[in-house]
Amino acid sequence: MKIISFAKIQNSGKKNLFLIPFLFTFGNALCGFLSVIQTLEENYFLAAVFIVLAALMDLCDGRLARYFGSTSVLGMELDSLCDAISFCFAPAILLYSWSLYQLGIAGMIVLGLYLCSGLFRLARFNTTSIDQGKSFIGLPTTIAAFFFANVVMYEKWIASSLFASVLRPERIAFMVTIIALLMISSIKFPSSKYVKMRLATGGFLILAAVASIWILLKGYPLFLMIAAAYIITSFLISIFKEITRSWWQ
Predict the structure, then answer these.
(1) Is residue 1 part of a domain?
(2) CATH no. for residue 136?
(3) Residue span of the structural domain in which 214 resides
(4) Residue among 72, 177, 195 nearest 126 (CA)
(5) Is residue 123 part of a domain?
(6) What are the helix (H) ranges across the chain?
(7) Is a pLDDT exceeding 60 seen at residue 247?
(8) What would the 3-class secondary structure string for 228-245 be?
(9) On the chain, which terminus has fewer CB atoms closer than 10 Å, C or N?
(10) What pLDDT sits at residue 193?
(11) At residue 220, what are phi and psi to the nearest 5 degrees?
(12) Number of domains observed in the structure of the chain
């Protein structure tokens, strides 16, 4: 009688489930599509929610592909095409209809820069991802779209805070320009792809989850703060490294 090892059964199960990452990738694109539809119907909050959902899908598909051992050039190219819809095209349409239409042609130019920068960022990643290691070169399109989606989602909170002036169209346009330039820059942004969860961090994760729930229940824009902190700290760290490197040369 032939003995089948547990590892063999597990590997067989993984192979049979190789399509799951593709479902998440297509889910990403569908969320981007639904975001555009909601923008056209002037449901800006819901349009932003779909972009956030697309970001969550994008966060999962790569990890699932690595887990099931189904990473491939096809998957990478498909992921980039879906990202172009959800994190380049959909945010541009949302930002124009929500705010930047007030700037007319100037708003179109700024969003055209954002769109092209995002597409360039995706194409560059596909050709250099092997050499990027544990950092991304340029701000990921997912983070950029996630940031602006949260700005739209928390519009009321921002309007009633000290940052109300940020919602003025010209300042939104300024932020879009900065984000677009960061996407095509050579600044390194840390990646969580290679971060492995350990049991030792379990207590910290529980505390972080409880704190996050408390912050959300209080109505604070937690995810907007996280995205902004990620962008700002990564930029400052990169500048600091460049300055200190020049000192030692």
Answers:
(1) no
(2) 1.20.120
(3) 12-248
(4) 72
(5) yes
(6) 6-16, 20-40, 44-68, 73-83, 90-98, 105-128, 141-153, 155-159, 169-183, 202-217, 222-248
(7) yes
(8) HHHHHHHHHHHHHHHHHH
(9) N
(10) 58
(11) -80, 145
(12) 1
Q: Which amino acid belongs to residue 165?
A: S
For the cut 90, the answer to whether the pLDDT of residue 45 exceeds it is yes
Tokens representing residue 16 in the block: 């049979």
Question: pLDDT per residue over 96-142, tens digit each?
Answer: 999 999 999 999 999 999 999 999 999 998 887 655 557 788 999 99
Does some domain include residue 7? no
Tell me if 69 is assigned to some domain: yes
- Put simply, whether the predicted model's pTM sits higher than 0.90 gets the answer no
Instruction: Judge whether residue 68 has pLDDT over 70.
Output: no
Torsion over CA of 127, 132, 139 and 21, rounded to 10 degrees?
A: 70
Alpha-carbon gap, residue 228 to 207, rounded angstroms:
22
User: 219: alpha, beta or left, given left = phi > 0 and alpha = psi -120 to 50?
Assistant: left
72 vs 155, more confident: 155
